[in-house]
UniProtKB/TrEMBL annotation:
It comes from Arthrobacter mangrovi. This is Transcriptional regulator. Residues 72-232 form the IclR-ED domain. Keywords: DNA-binding, Transcription, Transcription regulation. SUPFAM superfamilies: GAF domain-like, Winged helix' DNA-binding domain.
Amino acid sequence: MAAANGPDATTRAADRALGLLRVVCERDGVKLADAAKEVDLSASTALRLLRTLEASGFVAKRGDGLYRPGFRMVQLGVQALSHESLVATSRASLRALVERTGESAYLSVATGPAHGLYLAIEEGTHTVRHVNWVGRTFPLDGSAAGQALAGGVEPGSFAIVANGVEPDITAVAAPVLAGSKVVAALSIVAPSYRTTEEAARSLGELVAAEAGRLFANPTVVDPAAATAPFAS
């Protein structure tokens, strides 16, 4: 029988499993021995719990022997961010981009190793503009947002792709980071006929600046910057 003032076995097991999960999520790959030491467990106990988490998709053991967040953990994290803070936090940046450019601005996230999902939009103000694709998936390969989500774009920089996801459309995108992790991408999607190379680069600089501000100061957007005219 469990002691009246102490946790029972189920609670202790849950605490240990959650502790291991925290360590795995906080590091970019962790060894079994290091994870066990971090939460003050024997290697055998940590291995048993990690195997349970791995079977449920919450952690994954890669070929290098390191444990990393599994697909289920990533999926839950994306859902939490998308349903709560991420969309709300990005709304001011999306509006600022539209106010400066008149083009449609998107927030997207990765849904797996090969696809992304359009999560939110602020629709452009031009008569001819990109319409709402929220809820649609797109391939990471060959798309500007995909490059940003897959880690192919340096923080503070941007990708430009013309005729990628659809013809006659140019997209520019930049990664949104929380700490060192890419959690989303901001992008502008516009008709190619009015998006010259110079204009696309100007759009990219604006997108990268907004992406960099998202978690650095999520509630503040410079009013002067938001209303300044966009020069193509």
